[in-house]
Amino acid sequence: MIDLIKTRRSIRSYRDTEVGDDDLREIIEAGMYAPSAGNEQAWQFIVLKGEILKRYLALNGNVPQSAPTGILVCADRNAEKYKGMNTSYLDCAAATQNMLLAAHAKGLGAIWTAVFDGPKKEVIRLLNLPPGIDPFCFVPVGTYDKTAQEAPRRFDEAKIHRNGW
């Protein structure tokens, strides 16, 4: 598991190859096994492909344009047990990390992208999201040209503090 974490990369360029439904299901399932506040599981997932994906990409321009598939992770504010604490966003963050690792384990590329505030209302309209369902992030998923990239060293002992700063 540690090696999987250390070798995962954010992939920004994809081949035009469809991701199978079984792979997508397993990636989303990994997301649903993430820890969540009070086990509220305050998340929803929307798989985007084809024309709807193109329309989403036109609205939220930070996303790699070559991904054939993507998963919109939505915070389900209606499912929050602890009102006012925004725990659905924490749940979605943990789910997204699990999904990124699952995609990497399957040999697929993925990247965590933001859903910007500016186009958020248009995204809600485009996907007909009900009240209380808030787009949290978008994860493009696909096959990619694997190049031998050495993992950058990220561990920094200076960022670890014990019993205070």
Description:
With 165 residues, the protein is α+β, with helices and mostly antiparallel strands. It has 5 helices and 5 strands, in the order H-H-E-H-E-H-E-E-H-E. Strands 1, 2, 3, 4 and 5 form a 5-stranded antiparallel sheet that branches.
Gap from first CA to last CA: 30 Å
- What structural category arises from helix and sheet content? alpha+beta
Strand content: 15-25%
Morphology:
globular
The CATH architecture category equals 3-Layer(aba) Sandwich
User: Number of helical runs?
Assistant: 5
Q: Count of DSSP E strands?
A: 5
Residue-averaged pLDDT: 93
N-to-C order of helices and strands:
HHEHEHEEHE
Assign the CATH superfamily. Answer: NADH Oxidase
Described by its quaternary structure, the protein is: single chain
Task: Provide the gyration radius in Å.
Answer: 17 Å
What is the CATH first-level class name?
Alpha Beta
CATH topology: NADH Oxidase
Concise synopsis of the structure shown:
The protein has a single domain (7-144), classed as NADH Oxidase (3-Layer(aba) Sandwich). It has helices at residues 2-7, 21-32, 50-59, 87-105, 117-126; strands at residues 43-49, 69-76, 109-110, 113-114, 133-142.
SSE diagram, text form:
Elements: H1 2-7, H2 21-32, E1 43-49, H3 50-59, E2 69-76, H4 87-105, E3 109-110, E4 113-114, H5 117-126, E5 133-142
Antiparallel strand pairs: 1-2, 2-5, 3-5, 4-5
